[in-house]
Write a structure and sequence with these properties.
The complex is a heterodimer.
Chain A lengths: L8 H16 L7 E2 L5 E2 L5 E11 L8 E9 L2 E6 L19 E2 L3 E7 L4 E3 L12 E6 L4 E6 L5 H14 L8 H9 L2 H8 L13 H11 L4 E4 L15 E4 L4 H7 L10 E5 L5 E5 L10 H12 L4 E6 L7 H16 L13 H7 L2 H21 L3 E5 L6 H13 L6 H13 L5 H5 L12 H15 L8 H10 L13 H7 L9 E2 L2 E2 L20 H4 L2 H4 L36 E6 L2 E3 L6 H4 L4 H6 L5 H17 L1 H7 L20 H4 L20 H22 L4 H19 L3 H7 L27 H7 L4 H4 L28
Parallel strand pairs in A: 14-16, 15-16, 15-19
Antiparallel strand pairs in A: 1-2, 3-4, 3-10, 4-5, 5-6, 7-8, 7-9, 9-10, 11-12, 13-14, 17-18, 19-20
Chain B lengths: L1 H9 L8 H9 L1 H9 L7 H17 L8 H13 L16 H6 L14 E12 L3 E10 L2 E6 L6 E6 L3 E8 L7 E8 L6 E5 L2 H15 L27 H7 L7 E4 L15 E4 L4 H10 L7 E5 L6 E5 L12 H12 L7 E5 L3 H9 L13 E5 L5 H15 L8 H8 L1 H20 L4 E5 L6 H13 L6 H14 L4 H6 L13 H15 L8 H13 L10 H6 L2 H4 L3 H7 L30 H4 L12 H33 L20
Parallel strand pairs in B: 11-14, 12-13, 12-14
Antiparallel strand pairs in B: 1-2, 1-7, 2-3, 3-4, 5-6, 6-7, 8-9, 10-11
Helix pairs in contact in B: 1-4, 2-3, 4-19, 12-13, 14-15, 14-18, 15-16, 15-18
The chains are: A alpha+beta, B alpha+beta.
Chain lengths: ~800, ~675
């Protein structure tokens, strides 16, 4: 692939032929493979193309250059390698090929000529024939295409122009045409309407979803309230909220007025030690507190617990505007745009990086989340995150806490459920924050990207405790820039529901597997937007295969948090505060300000009188002891606890440990020093190769063992082992899950049975029934290879020895 | 961090931990036997520390392998036999711990000694002042090889183990907070840490500690031999046989029609800092060599370091020419370089790389040194690489230590690293080495590399570019050969640069050039993770034993001195230890990039501070979980699957021959999937 086509005789011969074909070929509108190998989406038009173009490959892709044809359509800039395999015409459409970039992701188009470099704007002119075309993307990727000297000059010029004209220019209103060019065709709508939702993840769209989450977390004393079903109480809250059992809906209704935008304290998650995580907006002041209201407010805030800690995120955390500034600086620094000719000298790189403050902010959020995680570990309290709007920082911290504490949230399905719960339905203003329409520059702030970076930091410190991979985080990071997904195209659940009013409001669980037909297209203004989690729509299966760890760790045991599972452990902390105490956690210290709860500060509340006593200082010191564990983050603490799956992953926050996400921000760092890499272009990344080999071996085994069913002794072992592996599959090993799970009965949800903390090779036998029951979990993500063959697989026996350098024979 | 390991062993982790020893058994029974027999593994404590990190990592990965049950308990007790004593370095303290686990271990208060090591003094009630958690009271033992502190005051033993030879200086300070009669001692080490102790000022103990420490930390200044001459460990492998110059030159295809191996320096009479065997152009006469030698600083004449197998382009090293302020000429030297150029038919140029800054080289000219004048050397092209001298590098590392130990300023971390310029100098070296390698590979031109004396920057540059050019040097053995050849035999002044056993810590001859080189190797390794047969532990081990004086490998300044001191017969080689258990030091994902030239990216944004080495003693540091452990699991799974496939295929073919059903004909060749990833 790397062989430069410049000098080969064969290519020279081809050129006139290609030109001819170009000229004669007029109907671009047919679905299917273009003459030169572009597999168009339905309705996609090729606007321009250039032949004999070489694409610069990233280090991950093996570096070097790949020659092929460059296309520009209404939707994307596509690159088809010369000798790419002919794609299956009947395969489901994938929005972006491995070498493609959507127009909407492009930030800048730069043409490099023999002696000059120019930023190409839609209206600008180009006075030279570009030799190189560099596309800077909003997601920090950089695509670099080199025009061969055999590329017709006109093509090089034209495609540069076309891209510059068609890419998402910085003006509002062009969004819709982009969306329509991607998803607007009838075929595409039809196709989308037949997509199934991922049944493995929790979408948090109906009350059953929330109930399932309550059950999963083992949270008792809480119920799902549908008081906001029609968004009458709060326009930004989801339709369902989780509140204490003891509060009736009628009582609950009165509490909404006490909070900014009606965002009352809502349950998010329960720690296995029995403490609850809540989030809320700031209190509405100047409101009269009736006696009954106060009772309800206290109830809502305390749940069933004795104590409540309010974590104030307003003043300490960077504001969205800060984050935006930091991110812009970081982007400028990392992209190193060649057209601007402002480059940071090498010896100032680290200082400049520091001055963006991005890493400071990352550390700030991680520290806060670690403190909250440590508090929750103490048990017997509610920890309430408070932020004036409850739509930015609360999202980051509450979801980070859960990633740290709950192994389930470190799986792909669990992580998606988490984002669904704490961001999408909770009303993070994705539309404004991402600023797709370019109409709310003031509100633009990549809060969600900051969160992804925080998760990456955790991942890079504990890679083995995650089932999801960096690749997955990158995919999600890049998808944010693509204005095609319902998940990000609204500011609240209400907006989403309004947009899809013609859709059924909820869907009924059928045998555990829920389906949601995307509805008939009734001439909607917008095309039907798929959720971002429909990865098969965006990425090829080979990329998706890298979303999960090749070797599954036990991190992804379906966490069965049976309430106070571990509350007897010595580290659990017994509240020595008085019942009803409220503390404020701010700047890593606790205080007990009298005006913390507005209704307690006044003299009017009779409730308060009965509780008026000296604030308990023991409570304070006890709490401080709790979070000291995290602020010290002393190594020993962590190592002993590594083995408890619910111990939080406390990140190290000292300088060298909070690092720049090179895999993301420096992906596009193109430098003249990029010499050829030894990795030969045809071979995959060694890791992929290895994963592939393991899979292949597994299949061989399966065939071999299927062939001889009559062989009694042989059959025994595979079957037992198969169950283990399927269980493993449930844990997300793509190596095994995809095929075997196709024909399995659908997963029955809500199982609370504790599955053993399994790592397949060393598990003793597990009842096969349970394994089958849960093995259907990955059908959505991975089940697109149609293969009905029953696959039996092997697993090394427990006594197997670790091989001496597995294959390292030198 | 031994504690982590130990904590690993009491938690439900065990199914894996015992596997590691088994690997070793399977891999190299002899060597394993050896280290099991001796209670203390012969490696320096740092190596053990690193290994335990890895073990801890494996175990933490397996943390969820299952609830603790009878089986794992069994494993645990089996495992204990193979575990060595507790050792812990950064001051971690463990919260409660099931005590019985700990008791099953070997008694911890007993200092474990390497063969030949003797305890010199033991003092009780010494306080270790941990930068993170405060004072810890325990027992301090000083042997002729290490300083060993253990505290049993908490449930978990706290252990600190420092190679006594790694001590750079001892400083006393006063400790008011711990009572009047207490004095403090700070042990400043060469490997980026400085633990502090405090002890009661009673006459006897004070004398004992300070005197013994001084005596054995700086044996040469106190008329004692280095510990390596007492070290009595026996290894199945003999590391002194790793480097055979003739064999190595033969591997390069030497001698050939233009180059010969000459014994002209066999008694070190031409140049006492060069090795006995030198590769010199065939046509050069002996007296011509002598005249060239007198023209080159320290008589370090241009000799061949490496020759390209295809193009015959060579890397030649030497010292600066003594041109002096008057631009002296030496016909023989000019002819000599011309001959070197002619030996390579591919190019009509010879590129000279002077590692120094141009201005510095000009200053040297005033002091009788200088550089080749392009007018007198007609086909030569002279390039200055602008690399600062050893003093600048020393300062840079000193600043780096201040940044990383004992506390790190989070807010200012990056600018503080920038201010040390350490990465900047690493970048300079890499850029220069890439230039040299590119010259040889792409321009097919021979190059001459020198700095002032040709034993510091020259060694760094030639060895780095050889590492990029020649895949052999990227293997475990090959890298040892590279070090033995370019650094040890060609007279990098290890004794002066490191200051083994010498108390004069202010000696301006000291400089961490070798550390800098290993850092560069690490940077290249990070950019090409599958191109090296060895792993990070190997590099850390080399650096630890650069200071430890346990092995004779890095002692003395030149081959000549080493022969005089009979190092080969009286001491053990580091490579004996390494090659006796190569499993620990190999990269499981090594892919042999034969004939590939590595061109690392040398911009600071592609370099990273080597946190695993420089920051490892920071008390807040916790080992990061290396992903490669995860990958090892995958390799393991593959091997197992492969075995099963083969077994099944045998069975299938066996049953086929019985049933003779032709339709299921199975080709056994399918079973052998080519293993691309196994080197």
């Amino acid at each position: 692939m790397l062989t430069g086509s410049k000098t080969t005789f064969k290519v020279r011969q081809l050129v006139p032929d290609m030109k001819e074909r170009m000229l004669s070929h007029s109907s671009f509108h047919t679905r299917g493979r273009d003459v030169l190998g572009l597999c168009c989406l339905p309705g996609e038009c090729v606007l321009q193309r250039a032949v004999l173009v070489r694409k610069k490959l990233s280090v991950k892709e093996g570096s070097g250059w790949l020659s092929g044809t460059l296309f520009c359509t209404h939707f994307r800039v596509a690159f088809v390698p010369q000798d790419s395999q002919r794609p299956d015409d009947n395969a489901d459409p994938v929005l972006l090929g491995d070498h493609d970039v959507a127009l909407a992701s492009i930030d800048k188009v730069v043409a490099v000529g023999p002696s000059r470099t120019k930023l190409v704007t839609p209206n600008g002119s180009l006075k030279f024939t570009p030799e190189e075309l560099v596309l800077y993307c909003r997601d920090l990727r950089v695509f670099c295409f080199l025009f061969d000297r055999l590329t017709p000059d006109a093509q090089a010029m034209e495609i540069t122009y076309t891209i510059a004209k068609t890419y998402q220019p910085l003006k509002p209103g062009t969004l819709l045409s982009f969306q329509n060019s991607a998803l607007g065709s009838i075929e595409m709508k039809q196709f989308l309407s037949n997509r199934r939702r991922d049944p493995n993840m929790n979408w948090f769209e109906c009350s059953a979803d929330w109930e399932q989450e309550l059950e999963r977390a083992g949270a008792t004393g809480w119920r799902v309230s549908s008081v906001n079903d029609r968004f009458e109480m709060s326009t930004s809250l989801p339709r369902f909220t989780v509140v204490p059992h003891r509060v009736l809906d009628t009582e609950l209704k009165k509490t909404f007025a006490h909070f900014n935008d009606g965002r009352i304290p809502r349950w998010c998650w329960r720690h296995p030690r029995g403490s609850d995580l809540l989030r809320m907006a700031s209190f509405q002041n100047n409101i009269y507190h009736e006696k009954d209201d106060i009772r309800n407010l206290e109830l809502v805030l305390f749940g069933g617990q004795q104590m409540c800690v309010i974590v104030d995120l307003g003043e300490e955390m960077p504001s969205p505007a800060d984050i935006q500034v930091a991110h812009t600086r970081l982007r400028t620094l990392c992209l190193g745009d060649i057209s601007s000719s402002v480059s940071v000298p090498d010896d100032k790189w680290l200082s400049t990086l520091e001055s963006t403050r991005w890493l400071d902010y990352i550390r700030c959020f991680l520290r806060k989340a670690a403190e909250v995680a440590c508090l929750l570990r103490g048990g017997h309290m509610t920890v309430v995150l408070q932020e004036s709007e409850d739509r930015d920082m609360n999202c980051v911290v509450s979801s980070l806490v859960q990633v740290m504490c709950d192994p389930h949230c470190r799986t792909v399905a669990g992580f998606q459920s988490l984002v669904q719960k704490e961001w999408i339905t909770a009303g993070h203003k994705f539309l404004s924050r991402i600023n797709y329409h370019r109409d709310c520059d003031k509100e633009e702030a990549p809060v969600f990207l900051l969160f992804l970076d925080c998760v990456w930091q955790l991942w890079s410190q504990y890679p083995t405790r995650f089932q999801l991979t960096e690749e997955y985080l990158l995919a999600l990071h890049d998808s944010v820039q693509l204005p095609l997904f319902s998940s990000f195209l609204a500011n609240s659940q209400r907006e989403r529901c309004r947009r899809s009013q013609h859709l059924p409001q909820s869907y009924t669980p059928v045998n555990g597997l829920r389906e949601l037909p995307m509805g008939e297209p009734e001439e909607p203004v917008d095309p039907p937007f798929p959720p971002v989690w429909d990865w098969a729509l965006q990425y090829s299966s080979s990329r998706r295969a890298r979303f999960t760890q090749p070797v599954s760790q036990a991190a992804c045991i379906p966490p069965v948090l049976n309430g106070n599972l571990n509350t007897n452990l010595e580290r659990s902390w017994h509240s020595d505060g008085l019942p009803g105490s409220v503390f404020l956690l701010s700047r890593s210290s606790f205080s007990n300000p009298s005006n913390l709860l507005p209704w307690r500060s006044g003299n009017s509340g009779s409730y308060w009188k009965s509780h008026r006593r000296a604030p308990s200082s023991e409570g304070l010191s006890g709490l401080e002891r709790l979070i000291r564990a995290c602020s010290l983050s002393d190594p020993s603490e962590n190592t002993t606890t590594l083995h408890d799956p619910f111990e939080p992953l406390l990140p190290l926050l000292i300088g060298p440990c909070v690092r720049v996400w090179r895999g993301c921000y420096l992906r596009g760092a193109l430098h003249p020093q990029a010499f050829s890499h030894p990795m030969s272009s045809c071979s995959q990344h060694p890791l992929d190769q290895l994963a592939f080999e393991v899979q292949e071996l597994g299949e061989k085994l399966a065939q071999a063992s299927v062939r001889h069913p009559e062989h009694q002794t042989r059959q025994q072992e595979p079957r037992r082992l198969e169950s283990n592996l399927n269980q493993n599959a449930n844990n997300g090993t793509f190596l095994f899950s995809s095929r075997s799970s196709q024909h399995q009965p659908p997963a029955s949800r809500g199982s609370t049975r504790p599955t053993n903390l399994t790592r397949a090779p060393w598990t003793a036998s597990e009842p096969p029934r349970s394994a089958q029951r849960i093995s259907g979990k990955h059908t959505f993500l991975f089940g697109h290879q149609q293969e009905s063959q029953s696959v039996q697989r092997y697993i090394p026996s427990p006594s197997a020895k670790y091989p001496k350098h597995a294959g390292n024979t030198h | 961090m031994e504690k982590q390991h130990s904590s690993g062993s009491d938690s439900p982790v065990l199914p894996v931990v015992p596997r590691k020893p088994r690997v070793l058994l399977a891999g190299n029974p002899a060597s394993r036997q050896d280290s099991v027999d001796s209670p203390e593994s012969p490696s320096g404590s740092h190596v053990e520390w690193c290994k335990q990190l890895i073990a801890a990592t494996i175990s933490s990965q397996m943390s969820c392998a299952g609830p603790p049950d009878a089986v794992t308990r069994e494993c645990r007790s089996q495992d204990c036999g193979e575990e060595h004593g507790y050792r812990c370095d950064s001051c971690s303290e463990l919260p409660s711990h099931p005590p019985q686990v700990f008791k099953r271990q070997a008694p911890v208060d007993e200092v474990q000694l390497v063969p030949g090591e003797t305890v010199k003094t033991t003092v009780k009630d010494v306080i270790y002042i941990c930068p993170l958690t405060g004072a810890v009271t325990g027992t301090l033992t000083v042997t002729d090889y290490k300083l060993y502190f253990i505290s049993l005051e908490r449930d978990d033993p706290f252990v600190l183990d420092v190679n006594i030879c790694a001590i750079s200086r001892l400083e006393t300070f006063s400790v008011q907070s711990l009572g009047e009669n207490t004095s403090g001692i700070e042990i400043v080490c060469k490997d980026m840490r400085s633990p502090r102790f405090a002890y009661k000022n009673e006459e006897q103990s004070k004398l004992e500690i300070l005197e013994t420490l001084t005596k054995y930390a700086f044996p040469l200044s106190n008329g004692l031999p280095l510990f390596t001459f007492q070290y009595k460990e026996k290894f199945p492998e003999d590391g002194w046989k790793v480097y055979d110059p003739v064999a190595e030159y033969k591997r390069m295809g030497l001698p050939n029609e233009s180059w010969t191996i000459r014994k002209i320096n066999s008694n070190y009479e031409v140049c006492d800092t060069y090795p006995a065997l030198l590769v010199i152009p065939k046509s050069i006469e002996d007296d011509e060599i002598k005249r060239v030698a007198s023209f080159r600083a320290k008589h370090r004449i241009p000799v061949l370091s490496w020759v390209h197998p295809e193009t015959q382009a060579t890397i030649v090293r030497c010292s600066q020419p003594m041109v002096g302020p008057t631009d002296r000429r030496c016909k023989e030297d000019e002819h000599y370089l011309q001959t070197i150029m002619d030996a390579n038919a591919q190019s009509h140029k010879l590129t000279i790389f002077d590692a120094r800054q141009n201005t510095v080289a000009d200053n040297h000219k005033a002091k009788d040194g200088g550089y080749e004048n392009e007018n007198f050397y007609p086909n030569m092209e002279l390039n200055f690489l602008e690399i600062p001298n050893i003093h600048v590098i020393r300062e840079s590392l000193r600043k780096l230590k201040e940044v990383v130990y004992p506390t790190i300023d989070e807010q200012r971390w990056h600018s503080a690293i920038d201010a040390t310029h350490w990465l900047e100098y690493i970048r300079l070296l890499l850029v220069s080495a890439v230039r040299i390698a590119d010259k040889v590979e792409s321009s097919k031109s021979s190059v001459v590399v020198h700095c002032s004396d040709g034993w510091d920057r020259t060694a760094q540059l030639t060895s780095l570019s050889m590492l990029m050019l020649d895949s052999y040097y990227r293997t475990l053995r090959g890298f040892q050969v590279l070090l033995e050849k370019e650094w040890i035999s060609f007279g990098h002044k290890f004794a002066s640069r490191v200051g083994h056993g010498d108390e004069n810590h202010l000696n301006s001859e000291r400089s961490p050039l070798f550390v800098q080189f290993i850092d560069c190797v690490w940077q290249v390794m990070r950019q090409f993770p599958t191109a090296f047969e060895f792993n990070e532990l190997f590099l850390i081990t080399i650096l630890d034993h650069l200071y430890s004086c346990l092995f004779g490998t890095f002692l003395y300044n030149s081959e000549h001195e080493r022969v005089q001191k009979e190092v080969n017969s009286k001491t053990v080689s580091l490579w004996s230890y390494i090659n006796s258990q190569p499993e620990d030091f190999t990269n499981p994902f090594y892919v042999n990039y034969e004939n590939h030239v590595l061109y690392p990216l040398a911009s600071v944004r592609h370099l990273e501070l080597w946190v695993g080495y420089y920051v490892r003693w920071n008390p807040r540091m916790r080992p990061q979980m290396p992903v490669h452990q995860n990958l090892k699991e995958l390799l393991y799974l593959r091997t197992e699957l492969q075995r099963k496939v083969e077994e099944l295929q045998k069975e299938v073919s066996a049953s086929h021959s019985i049933s003779s059903s032709s339709e299921h004909a199975y080709s056994p060749s399918h079973g052998c999937t080519p293993l691309h990833t196994s080197g």
